[in-house]
Amino acid sequence: MSERTLKEIMSQRLAKRESLLNEGVNPYPYKFDRSHLITAALEDFDQLAEKTEISFAGRLMSRRVMGKASFANIMDGSGRIQLFISREEIGVEAYTLFKGLDLGDFIGVSGKLMTTRTGEKTLKVASLTLLSKNIRPLPNVKEKDGQTFDGFEDKEQRYRKRYLDLIVNPEVKETFVKRAAIYRSIRKFFDGSDYLEVETPILQPLYGGASARPFMTHHNALNMPLYLRIADELYLKRLIIGGFEKVYEFSRNFRNEGMDRTHNPEFTAIEWYEAYVDYHYLMDQVESLFKHLCADLGQSTFSFKGHEIDLTQEFQRAPMAELVAEHVGIDLATANEKELLTVCRKHKVDVDTNANYGQLLDELFDALVQPHLIEPTFVTEYPKAISPLAKHLRDSDGTFVERFELFIAGSEFANAFSELNDPVDQRARLEAQAALREAGDDEAQVVDEDFLQAMEYGMPPTGGVGMGLDRLIMLLTDNPSIRDVLLFPQMRPESKG
RNA sequence: GCACCGCUAGCUCAACUGGCAGAGCAGUUGACUCUUAAUCAAUUGGUUCGGGGUUCGAGUCCCUGGCGGUGUACCA
């Protein structure tokens, strides 16, 4: 739409590019030696001002021309600074070049720092070089005293053209800088506990470790189907079997499912496994990971979804059935499926009438309890029916397993178990999943014969945790949508309708 | 999936009950040596998301499709 007017602006700029080339000026030179980042020079202003010749490189963001002298602002990766350019100072030729610049051009400038009459720290430009010619106009944003005017606000365009969002809405950068800091902190936590960071296949002949539909692809040379991983769990367990006793991986996972505020088709999780520990150990460990993160970020209370949450407090722990029982006022430990169904109906929880005890309990929990778990809470003892990779709860009848999930502000943040390591039991559980698949559940897990064989060689008692990092970053940066913590969220192609 | 809201110039927005599609910024031309949402003067720029319909006349009303946002459901 409105291509014509955009084309006019662009053809003007293309013409400038041409005439520069004709004058023998390369509008795209190869390098520029800058002496300072903008913010570094501003911090060191008193040392540098009036004395030292310094240089910056950056993008021209605004301009105020007043005849033979001008002010402009450039932005580099660190920040912005005002430039003062006078014809007297830089000469007629350079001043003409400056007046021919467009917003969005990259330039290199050198000169001395000064303070303007109104007290703004400014570079008095002595020389100026074009570093890259802009030919497509940037969204035009005005700024004053930290307030922005006429911003670039269309969320769709911001997600589709994230590079523009980053240029024009600098606060967006902070989320991604913080994301990197969180990764660094997590790495430090595990590296410091003698964990080994590993990389396992993203392209897998069979997918597993979670209940989800996969993306499928095809390898030409092998002429075989391959799946993009939905989780790295089964490979990390192979490594535990192989004798690496503590492993972790930042795992980009792919799930062929719906998209919404909290789901992107590709997302990042961290999973870690440690030999000879159980889920009680893991709860303590997860709590200390959060404390470690808070210390590194220098913050203990986080605002998220309108709640103020202290992540350094002791996390609550409670079995799933108890939490549901508290809510419905019925002792569920002795309830049968029929009674649970009645409870579901009473609380208007929509369920499949063929659902088993575990699925019903899970439904009740999701509908009635989870939204109210605001303070950090480990929900423990999940039904075996929905946990095919977890060990039976010790000293019990086998209805429940040693598993926990961590909830904060009504959302799930971690999922962990005392990992099942009995190969006979594991085979039976996966075969039960396969039966569910036969019955039409296309998210049920598949039997991975190689994984079962690996376990038959012997797997030590092991604890393992999976934690969704995108959601963690949403929590720690107070962003309500996963799209705000992904640089390039998945979008439908733009179409002309 | 369902509901609601949105889509008009490069950007931000306006246009009453259906009556000539507008403004600011950006762009272009000119003036201006301490401005800072610079200012002043002039000026260019439109497939109003696509398609169909009603009407003398549609940005506006109706149908249909697209994309996005929010909520909700399903799903981990």
Give a concise summary.
The protein has 497 residues and is α+β, with helices and mostly antiparallel strands. It has helices spanning 3-22, 38-43, 45-48, 87-90, 92-99, 155-160, 162-168, 171-191, 233-241, 279-297, 320-328, 337-346, 357-369, 423-438, 449-456, 469-477; strands at 54-66, 69-75, 80-86, 106-115, 121-132, 142-144, 147-149, 196-197, 203-204, 216-219, 224-228, 246-254, 266-275, 301-304, 307-310, 316-319, 377-383, 400-408, 411-418, 462-468.
Describe the structure.
The protein has two domains: 3-138, Nucleic acid-binding proteins (OB fold (Dihydrolipoamide Acetyltransferase, E2P)), CATH 2.40.50; 173-315 and 375-484, BirA Bifunctional Protein, domain 2, CATH 3.30.930. It is 34% helix and 26% strand. The chain contains 16 helices and 20 strands. The relative contact order is 0.09. It binds one RNA strand of 76 nucleotides through helix 1, strand 1, strand 2, strand 3 and strand 6.
Q: What is the CATH architecture descriptor of the largest domain?
A: 2-Layer Sandwich
Number of strands: 20
Helix-and-strand structural type: alpha+beta
Fraction of helical residues: 25-40%
Distance between the termini: 12 Å
Number of helices: 16
Inertia-based shape: elongated
